[in-house]
Amino acid sequence: MKIAIHHTRYSKIGGSEGYIASLLDLLLEKGHEVHYFAAKWEEIEHPNLHFHRIRYFKAIPALKVLSFDRASQKILNPDEFDLVHGFTKASYQDLYTDGSGCFSDYEDFARQVRWNWWFRSLTLYGWAVRKVEKRRFQRGNFIKILTMSQFVKDQIQRRYGLNDDEVEVLYNGIDTERFKPDSNKRLEVRKSLNESPETQVALFIGNDYLRKGLSTLLKAMSKAQSMWNLWVVGKDKKEQQYKALAQDLGVASRVKFLGPQKQVQDYLSACDAFIFPSLYDVFGNVGFEAMATGIPSVFSAKAGVSEIIQDNKDGLFLENPQDVDLLASKLEVLSNIEFRAKLAKQARETAKSYSWPNHFERLFQIYEEVAEKKKRLRSE
C-alpha cells in the first residue's frame, strides 16, 4: 500500500514519537511505500520512505494550531494514498489515532483543579483547538477513529455522536521482556537507596503531581495503619510544596523524591506496590509497565489503564482518586503479603495478553479495512 503518516515530527524519542517510529519500521519491513508528513524529522534513509515538510506559523499558539492544519491540507492530498494515518491535531485523515481525548473534557477537568484554566478556556488557543477538533470528528473527514481507551471513546461519542463502527478502542501494547520481575534489581535498587529489603515500599511515577494525585497518596499514607514508605519518581515545578505537605502530614521521613529516572523498570522491580491515583489520564502506560513487572497496583477509575483490570484479581480499582480514606484502605489491603503475591502473578499474566505483536496485528487489519472502505467510497 501507499501510506501517508501525519505527525508534527519524526523521532525515536518520546511516547507517541517512539510508537510511530516502531510502526514505521514495521510498515517498511512489510514493503509498503510510506510518505511521512511532518514539520521536522531525524534523518533516516530507506528507498520506500519519503519525508514531506509541513511549514507553518509557530509564533502564536492559536495560529500555530490553525496554520499547521491549513498547511497540512495544502501539502497532503488524501486521494494520492491508499491510507492516511494521522496522529496530530489536523482536520482530515482516513484513520486517526487519538492519544489525548477531547479538549473540552480536559478543560472541564482542569477548571476543577486549576483556577487559571477558567481564563485559559477563553483564549484564542482553546477556540482554535476546539475548531480543528470539531472538523476532525465530522463524518466525511475520517473513516475510522482509534482511541487507546474506552475513556476517550466515550468522550468522542458523547460530544460528536459517532457510533461504535466509527470509533474503536485499540489498547497499547507492552514489552513483557523489558518489563518483568527481577529480584536482583530489587536488592540492588534498595541497597542504593538505603532501603531495607523488608520495608513495604509503594511507588509513584509521574510528572504533574497535581493531575497524578500525589497529594491524595501522601494523605492516605498518613491515615493508613500499616507502614508504607514511598518513592516518588518524576518531577514537578511545585515539588517543594509536596515535600512540605509530607512534612505537615508527618510522613516526610518515609518519602523519597527521586526525580526523573530513565530505567523506571528497575524501580518497579524494587517496590512492593504501584499506586496510580491519577485524576485524569487517557490511559497511563506506566500502569501497564507495573503489571508486566508483576507489581500489585492500585488504578484510578479516571485512568484508561483501569479498564483492563479485574478488581481484586489483577489489580485494585480506585473508584474515586480523591478519596483519601478509600486509598488508605487499599494500602491496608496491600499490606497482606499473600494477597500481593496473588495480584502480582495475575497482573503479569494479564499484561502478557497485551503484547505489541498483538497490537500491531490488529492495527494492520484495520489498515486493510479502512483502505478497502476508502476504495469503495471513491468508486461510488
Task: Please name the defining characteristics of this protein.
six-stranded parallel beta sheet, seven-stranded parallel beta sheet, Rossmann fold, 380 residues, alpha/beta
Task: Report a brief summary of the structure.
The protein is α/β, with parallel strands linked by helices.
Describe the model.
The chain has 380 residues and is an alpha/beta fold. The chain has two domains: 2-173 and 356-379, Rossmann fold (3-Layer(aba) Sandwich); 183-352, 3-Layer(aba) Sandwich (Rossmann fold), CATH 3.40.50. 45% of the residues lie in helices and 16% in strands. It has 15 helices and 15 strands. It has a seven-stranded parallel β-sheet, with helices on both faces. Strands 12-11-10-13-14-15 form a six-stranded parallel β-sheet, with helices on both faces. Helix 9 crosses helix 13. It is globular.
Number of helices: 15
Q: Overall pLDDT, averaged?
A: 94
End-to-end CA span = 21 Å
| CATH fold descriptor of the largest domain | Rossmann fold
How is the topology of this model organized?
Elements: E1 2-6, E2 9-10, H1 15-29, E3 33-38, E4 40-41, E5 49-53, H2 61-75, E6 83-86, E7 95-98, H3 103-113, H4 117-120, H5 124-136, E8 144-147, H6 150-160, E9 167-169, H7 183-192, E10 201-205, H8 209-212, H9 214-223, E11 229-233, H10 239-249, E12 255-259, H11 264-270, E13 273-276, H12 285-292, E14 297-300, E15 316-318, H13 324-334, H14 337-352, H15 356-379
Parallel strand pairs: 1-3, 1-6, 2-4, 3-5, 6-7, 7-8, 8-9, 10-11, 10-13, 11-12, 13-14, 14-15
Helix pairs in contact: 2-5, 7-11, 9-10, 9-13, 12-14
